[in-house]
């Protein structure tokens, strides 16, 4: 295997690693490009005291830490304030804040480093929570908990002590325990029930069947729509939003199933005046045994190509 092929086999895992650090797919891809540039330039000095994979992750972590010196943490609307309850008051102008972006699962590819545990560490609730950690603390958490690096190796990368790494990890764990949902709130139902919930959601959204949607959402369901800062909490307010914003009548929208951050997702296409279906948003769902507890809809059509989806849907 030549060097280019060896670099390429780690690309999916590196993009996921940088995404956890940065909270942005586009920033993560830029960070991986910079990682490869530095690796090509420095390969002559690589003394094989570690594997190529470990060496690449060291470079990528430093690239991300440099980027985070000049940027703000990525957020979701629910991190900015209390929920709204008026569907007509959605603040047409988006706030100038860096929003969390979704991660297309297909980008993971066949990287052997992407094991089952990565799915949990990529969930939107987890990545959003990690954005609250200081950058170096975030790096410690990801390197120790996701990549399972020894504390001594993390200390070497960050030019600190093993004791400092262990202390930072304890603080990161405590902060995540405060911020992220409990495991039982994220546990998905058995596959037949999960499949039924997703099929019903897709059909009910396309037909604007609010009665069915009412039965699918949990009582405390949330609906968020970055870059729109207003968000909604509670089944009644979510349904009020959908009643206001979903156009009635047949064939107004199409949902195409995909997946993001290890979660089920749908790409929403809206029928335009030209009778074509135009890319609108990527909606990532949190599905629990009690029903759909969260929909995070990213109103960014520019994300569609990263999911392998066209901007115009043709049935």
UniProtKB/TrEMBL annotation:
Family from the record? Belongs to the sigma-70 factor family. ECF subfamily.
A Pfam short name:
Sigma70_r4_2
Q: Which GO terms describe its molecular function?
A: DNA binding; sigma factor activity
All copies of domain SnoaL-like, residue ranges: 200-280
Q: Which GO terms describe its biological process?
A: DNA-templated transcription initiation
**What is the protein name given in its UniProt record?**
RNA polymerase ECF family sigma subunit
The record's listing under SUPFAM superfamilies reads:
NTF2-like, Sigma2 domain of RNA polymerase sigma factors, Sigma3 and sigma4 domains of RNA polymerase sigma factors
Q: How does it assemble?
A: Interacts transiently with the RNA polymerase catalytic core formed by RpoA, RpoB, RpoC and RpoZ (2 alpha, 1 beta, 1 beta' and 1 omega subunit) to form the RNA polymerase holoenzyme that can initiate transcription.
Show the InterPro entries listed in the entry. ECF_Sigma-70_Domain, NTF2-like_dom_sf, RNA_pol_sigma-70_dom, RNA_pol_sigma-G_actinobac, RNA_pol_sigma70_r2, RNA_pol_sigma70_r4_t2, RNA_pol_sigma_r2, RNA_pol_sigma_r3/r4-like
- The RNA polymerase sigma factor 70 region 4 type domain is annotated at 124-176
Q: Which residues form the RNA polymerase sigma-70 region domain?
A: 8-73
Q: Which UniProt keywords apply?
A: Sigma factor, Transcription, Transcription regulation
């Amino acid at each position: 295997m030549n060097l280019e092929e060896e670099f390429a086999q780690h690309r999916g895992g590196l993009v996921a690693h940088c995404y956890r650090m940065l909270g942005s797919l586009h920033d993560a891809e830029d960070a991986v490009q910079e990682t490869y540039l530095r690796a090509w330039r420095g390969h002559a000095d690589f003394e094989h005291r570690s594997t190529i994979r470990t060496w690449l992750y060291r470079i990528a972590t430093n690239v991300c830490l440099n980027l985070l010196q000049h940027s703000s943490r990525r957020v979701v609307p629910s991190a900015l304030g209390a929920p709204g309850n008026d569907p007509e008051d959605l603040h047409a102008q988006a706030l100038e804040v860096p929003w969390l972006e979704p991660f297309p699962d297909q980008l993971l590819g066949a990287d052997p480093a992407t094991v089952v545990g990565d799915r949990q560490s990529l969930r939107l609730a987890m990545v959003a929570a990690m954005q609250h950690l200081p950058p170096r603390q975030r790096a410690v958490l990801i390197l120790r908990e996701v990549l399972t690096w020894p504390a001594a190796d993390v200390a070497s990368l960050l030019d600190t002590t093993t004791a400092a790494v262990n202390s930072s990890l304890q603080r990161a764990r405590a902060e995540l325990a405060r911020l992220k949902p409990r495991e039982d709130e994220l546990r998905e139902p058995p596959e037949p029930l999960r499949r039924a919930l997703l099929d019903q959601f897709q059909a009910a959204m396309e037909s604007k069947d609010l009665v069915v949607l009412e039965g699918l959402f949990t009582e405390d369901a949330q609906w968020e729509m970055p870059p729109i800062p207003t968000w909604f909490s509670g089944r009644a307010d979510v349904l009020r939003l959908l009643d206001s914003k979903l156009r009635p009548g047949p064939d107004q929208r199409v949902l195409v199933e995909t997946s993001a951050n290890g979660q089920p997702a749908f790409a929403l296409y809206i029928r335009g005046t030209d009778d074509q279906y135009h890319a609108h948003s990527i909606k990532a769902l949190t599905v629990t045994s009690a029903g759909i507890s969260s929909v995070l809809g990213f109103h960014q059509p520019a994300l569609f190509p990263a999911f392998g989806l066209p901007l115009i849907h043709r049935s």
